[in-house]
Write the structure tokens for this entry.
Amino acid sequence: MPWVLAGDDKPKKKAAATKKKKTTTARPKKPAYPKFNPNSSRWFDHTLTPINQAAKAFTRKYLLNDEGLFCFSKLIPVPEIIKHVSVAPEIVTKEELQQLQSEHPELVSTFVDEGLLYSDEMDPDKIDNQLSYCTQECLQNLQKTYGAASWYDFLMTHWGAPTEADEAYNDGEMRFFNTPVAWPKAFILEMAKRCPEGHWNWYYDDTRSVGEHIFDIKGGRIVPFTGWDSGDYDEMDEPYDKDKDPYLKEEAGNTADADATAEATAEATAEEPKAAAKKAPAKKATAKKTAAAKDSEATAEAPKAAAKKAPAKKTAAKKTSAAKATTKKATTTTKAKKSE
């Protein structure tokens, strides 16, 4: 069966060059993906088979959900704010957004600072069953940051499919699921880029086309399928080997580092009382030495202070004696005058 890669248009013949250039009004570019119709009859059934150990390890680490089934959102998660921006949000000003917030408390204001209000109530007239209000600045920031300004734009841009993998199940290492509208080419390219050493085989069947679509993901890109007997798939039958899983080794190393850090912290905490107990006698001895030194200094300074005070005391005593003598003399003179 020849290799067919869906979605690739046949090369178109170049139009003949014209002498005069026609001036035409620029039209907005149409998205490179189809619009989502929930009632679409076009579905794609996929089978993903990891061939080598690198692909098997990467699949388990990044391509399976908690139930062990294939999913898109683990490798490429949808930003929380993008989940609540509808395909055609109501564009409002900042003032109108504030007014909506005050008049409609039922609107969720988690991202009001970013310029978004949304309602979780079901709206049958909306494709995504959600109504949201955005400022133009908010949409521009989303486009700049995430390359998309609504949940649908994000999924089609980064996954290439408008929904999470549906009806997923496993058969050994083979992962089965389906998607509506389109095959997830954008996701496949990102997967190949993230794990260039991995080798997968991808098969899908389009309900609207005839024939099989099968290719390999190898060397960081999509390559033609060479046939099961080509020798490129000898590793496919080898069971998954934990010892060759680099992600398990990385996790084990991180766990060991965390355990070593926790153990070192616990030991340091346990040693603190011992260290404090060892330091206590030294502190007491130091305090005693300091007190003794102060007492010794005080004792040594006492004679000096006394010596400094002695002359002052003598001078005061002389002044007192002189004063007493003067007083006595004056008293004697007064008595002599009275007797005369």
In short: The first strand starts at residue 43 and ends at 50. The chain has a mean pLDDT of 78. The beta strands are 43-50, 90-91, 116-119, 131-134, 166-171, 174-180, 199-206, 213-218, 221-224. The chain has six helices and nine strands.
